[in-house]
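User: Fold this; tokens only.

Assistant: Input:
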Amino acid sequence: MRINKNNLRLFSLMFCFLVLISCKKQDLPAKPEASAFSAVLESNSVVPAAGGTVNILISTQTDGWWISNLSANWATVNRTYGSGNFKLPVTVKANTSGVKRNVNLQVNPTFNLPVVNLTINQDN
């Protein structure tokens, strides 16, 4: 079967036309925008030598966040990321070392907002 140039052009134009009319505007959700962000220790940042829990209050509406640089094995969180407002407990094990200790951690917001650095101290 032989296809001449005119038929090929006509077929190409019809194909392009079909592609164009099949592409319709879609109603996409609104692009997310950054909201206010804060992360603070709920109470005193000093934990007794016997151990305990310190809460981080994260306020960010619907934006996301994640925890980084929590490098001490004696302080742990049960969640390292999330979104929205959240009360994040940091569990601190008993200090049997005989010296005061501290741990730094970062709460990172989405949208390239400034990182919040927090320090938790523990008595000896």
